[in-house]
Every structure is written in structure tokens, then in C-alpha cells.
Amino acid sequence: MLQWIRSLLRLNKEKHNKENLPEDWEEPKGPFQIVPMSHDDLDEVVKIEKLAFRGGSWSRWAFASELRRGPDSCFLVAKVGDRVVGFGGWQREYQEAHIVNIAVHPRMQGRKIGEAIFRRLLEEALRRGLSQSILEVRASNTVAQNLYKKYGFQVIGLRRWYYFSPKEDGLVMRLNDIRQALERVPKTLPSLPTQDGGLNKGAVEK
Length: 206
Ligand SMILES: CC(C)(COP(=O)(O)OP(=O)(O)OC[C@H]1O[C@@H](n2cnc3c(N)ncnc32)[C@H](O)[C@@H]1OP(=O)(O)O)[C@@H](O)C(=O)NCCC(=O)NCCS
What we know:
By secondary structure, the chain is α+β, with helices and mostly antiparallel strands. It has a single domain (about 30-190), classed as Aminopeptidase (3-Layer(aba) Sandwich), CATH 3.40.630. Helix content is about 35%, strand content about 30%. It contains six helices and eight strands; from the N terminus they run αβααβββαβαββαβ. The protein has helices at about 1-20, 40-50, 60-65, 115-125, 140-150, 180-185; strands spanning about 30-35, 75-80, 85-95, 95-105, 130-140, 155-165, 170-175, 205. It has an eight-stranded mixed sheet, sandwiched between helices. The protein is globular and about 40 Å long. The termini are far apart. Bound molecules: coenzyme A (COA). Coenzyme A binds near residues 110, 113, 114 and 146. The site of coenzyme A has 19 residues, from strand 4, helix 4 and helix 5.
């Protein structure tokens, strides 16, 4: 009986992994850009969210409602040509930018795309008058924590069983001075000038 349950669990896991591996995903070639998320991006964004978080928790509707919030929310995508390869976003909470989601397609991770999105999120927060940022991260997610620590985020609290599937504690991390962080961490790419001083739609991240 125990053997039977084990093989059923293993089969389920294999099925889950197979469904979630982007085996038939053709990698887009070329430089990437960071641009504001639009409704046309949502199918790809939801797909990447599911892959990057092994299931994901945000629905298409959740992303779409963020796009309707106006200046109190900022959601960006990284694109190679017209293909979305990553995304991230924050919501305004008082004087803080609460980074609520960020992910890069698993096949494109480790190429500075996540950092480019993250940095642009902070730049845009500062431009909109927000000087601080906060976020939650799984206790085991050291890759994301390294990125946040690189910009000076510090652990300020722990939320017991904050995450589900799998159940896990969340660390609360906070950055007290976005401007200082952006000045301290060298930019790996030149910024192209923008006409309105806002999101750098023309910037090419390499
Ligand atoms: C977290 C994530 C967005 C980072 O994006 P990425 O494009 O893979 O990361 P980058 O190449 O931009 O690396 C930026 C920094 O992240 C950290 N990092 C990236 N890959 C790492 C690895 N394999 N091991 C340790 N740290 C790593 C490093 O601090 C790195 O800076 P450095 O190269 O100067 O050391 C991406 O890995 C991802 O989508 N993960 C799954 C979803 C997720 O966990 N999101 C965060 C939820 S809170």
C-alpha cells in the first residue's frame, strides 16, 4: 500500500515537472529592453509566473487589475524583441514601493535580466516620490535574497507560514533609502535619455 502511494506521488511529481518545464520554449535571441507591462503581455507574463514559481499564484485578472491602478502601481516587463522574458511590479503603500512580484523565465535566469527589472522598479519608485521599498521573500529563496541584499535590503521580520505550496516562512525585507542604493550599486548598462524623464522605454539592457 505504502509502495503504491509512493509511486502515485512520484508520478504526480513527474507530471507536474513535465508540465512546468519549458521544453518546447524557443529562446528569443538579442538584447532585452525593460518597458511598462501592457495587457498584450499578460498571457506570456502569467506563463512565466507559473514556470518561475512552479505553479504561480497570480491570475491574469490579478495582473490586469494592477495595470488599471495607475500611478499607485508599477509593473514592467523585460522583452527580447516582442517576447516577454521577465516581469516585476510594485504597489504604492504610503511612502513605500511594495515589490509584490518579480520573475524571469527559467531559461533566461542568471543573465542580469532580473536585476535590470529590479533596478528599473526602484528607479521608477524614486521618480514617483517613493524613497523606501519593502518586500517578502521565501526563507529558502537565497537567489532572490542575494539580489535584494545587493541593493541594501535588510531582513526586518519573519512571517510564519506566509507561503503555501510548499508551506514556508516569509522574510520581510526593507530598503530605507532607494536613492542611496541606486547610487551605491554600479549600473551595468548605460541609460538612454527619455523625453519625459520617466520609464526608459528605449533602453537596451545587455
Ligand atoms: C530572482 C530572479 C528574479 C533573479 O533574476 P535573474 O535574472 O536570475 O538574476 P540576475 O542574473 O539579474 O542576478 C542578479 C543578482 O541575483 C543574485 N543571483 C542570481 N543568480 C544567482 C545564483 N544562481 N545564486 C546566487 N545568487 C544569484 C546575485 O546577487 C546576482 O547579482 P551578482 O551577479 O552581481 O552576484 C530569478 O532568479 C527568478 O525569476 N527566480 C524565480 C522567481 C523568484 O524567486 N522571484 C522572487 C520572488 S521574491
